[in-house]
Amino acid sequence: xxxxxxxxxxxxxxxxxxxxxxxxxxxxxxxxxxxxxxxxxxxxxxxxxxxxxxxxxxxxxxxxxxxxxxxxxxxxxxxxxxxxxxxxxxxxxxxxxxxxxxxxxxxxxxxxxxxxxxxxxxxxxxxxxxxxxxxxxxxxxxxxxxxxxxxxxxxxxxxxxxxxxxxxxxxxxxxxxxxxxxxxxxxxxxxxxxxxxxxxxxxxxxxxxxxxxxxxxxxxxxxxxxxxxxxxxxxxxxxxxxxxxxxxxxxxxxxxxxxxxxxxxxxxxxxxxxxxxxxxxxxxxxxxxxxxxxxxxxxxxxxxxxxxxxxxxxxxxxxxxxxxxxxxxxxxxxxxxxxxxxxxxxxxxxxxxxxxxxxxxxxxxx
Length: 366
Fold this sequence. Notes:
This protein is an alpha/beta fold. It has helices at residues 2-18, 21-28, 59-84, 99-108, 122-127, 132-139, 171-183, 186-189, 209-212, 235-250, 280-290, 292-302, 308-331; strands spanning 34-38, 43-45, 54-58, 195-200, 203-204, 207-208, 227-231, 256-261, 351-354, 361-364.
């Protein structure tokens, strides 16, 4: 009887000890509050000096960057799954592999700064403040999407974020036009804080940049506009370069071009398998040597800013958030048909659409 009781008590105690084991381990670690890291020197064009080659990362910021990048990665992988299950239709351009660009850019600017981008926009939507739920629901065309299910992958908006634009290069003139409107005159435009960011993932659709471009020094393509080329796989390098570029513009020195050298793991879009013009080995080499999430994690663990167990806990929380958002995105109702013509004209006039047959018309009264 005593042996049975002892065994039972032992099982209870062991069970209690096992549940919070990782938390006990985390709590017992002596963390560093911050650490200094060397970052790759940027290539400069028409600039006498560039961003620093060392930077300080706090534990708090490091964990925040890791969570954000991991969330974007998992969100994009979930979007891939939903697309293959036909919950997502039409164009869908994923940015997994390029997480350091989105997170580093946001870390280097202010929430009040204005951002406009091209069609590979999901990561920037998230860093600009949209929830995973709002993004995935927009991808599946549901009422709870950030554009009420009518924008899709390339047309998402948030406060101080103006898309997501489907036309290649459209964000350039649209962004410049917005700056002109704000400046009221061309003379003032030159002094407005404007950073032109080029995310160079080495391929234009299915063609290597080396084959397609006369010059792959995109940071020099502004000609008389200064530029810098940045390691876009390192979130700290992107952050410091963005801070430098933003300070440069805010000091009324004019615009600046910033090229982020990065890499996308998926093809150009979901219709592109991404392995007909590059090898699987090339993709795996980038994953194993330059993955932005792995690089940040290794830095923080080696500098005692966090533990492996702590990152595992974050991973579990992120996966749950993504799964919950995906469930919402597949069960939320689609927008009602009578709202089809809403938000097209500022004064909401009666909206009339011809159907597949020219004799059948749909009318919507706002």
